[in-house]
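WARN retry 2 of 3 for item q-0093 after timeout on previous attempt; input resubmitted unchanged.
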Amino acid sequence: MLLNYYAIAAAIVVGTVSGIASVVWIRGRVHDGLVAVRAAAVGIVGSLVFSAGALGITGLDGFTLIHVVYLVLVVGVPLAGAIVLTFARERSRAITALCLAAQLAIPVGIYATHIEPFWLRTDSVELSVAGVGERIRVGVLADLQTTEIGSYENEAVDQLIEAAPDMVLIPGDLYQFDEDVFDERAPQFSEVIQRLVDAASTVFLVSGNTDTVAGLRAITEGTGARVLDNEVETLVVNGTVVSVGGTTLFSDERAAQRVADRLSDDDQAGVRILLAHKPDAIELLEGRSVDLLVSGHTHGGQVSLPFFGPPLTLSDVPRHVAAGGLHELEGTAVYVSTGVGRERDNAPQLRFGVRPSIGIIDLVGDS
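OK item q-0093 returned
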């Protein structure tokens, strides 16, 4: 919270100083081509100074820099443009056009911060698997990644339950809060898990970056859900034998490798699913394959640019795979959820071009 207030203040100061500097230069009849350059230089230097201050608050963290830069762009830049439009009476058409264009950052910022992060969608895909008889519907609830359960999180759960999945997979980052409030907030998450179990009966979870195996086990205790800690569970779903192997992030790599080995060598199951927080778990298969890898982690990049995709995915899989959806990678179908929540802590709370989602994967026979 302190960082957010600081970053907003930094954006206001940078925008104000840049705008005033521009007005001074324009009134001094500085060549128009240099005004924007000099004002941008003032803004960049100011952003760097305030970014250094932000890092002093949070420590070295890339998300902190993104946070400050984002607010400078959506608050500081439009503010600087507004100051020039108001006080620089003899500005050129080019400068006027730039200042007007800068105002477009305001609706973009409002949309990315307050609209798209809560514009939930259902991502429905179909996958043919030779061993499937009757259709199996798999629901995916990834990266809820919230400090508490509110109306938005309940909406995501409601939407998933309405799709009537036969099983639900949760690939980590269920919660994100400090351990000192765990006992207070855990019951909210237990209630969510119980609702899913009541609807689908079969619910599997693995841990991610922001939750732990111990925390998930405490939350799921008595619900009937199962936390897979480098384990494989085999069950029958709609007449088909299904093996689900869950890998634990930051665990013994040999244990995770054994899960992948067991699944890839399993010739008894009609469907073999590897559940992992990161899509990078594809590396555990070492060129072999399973029927489906289900993951989250990337949030689809959380920001996606037209014709380019997400600039940052925090994953080594190809960008188009990390961007979300169902893809084939090294002979395995890989489903990456764009997630329900968003990065917290020092990161800006935004989504742009990557709507949050719940996933519905219909497994059907290949005939």
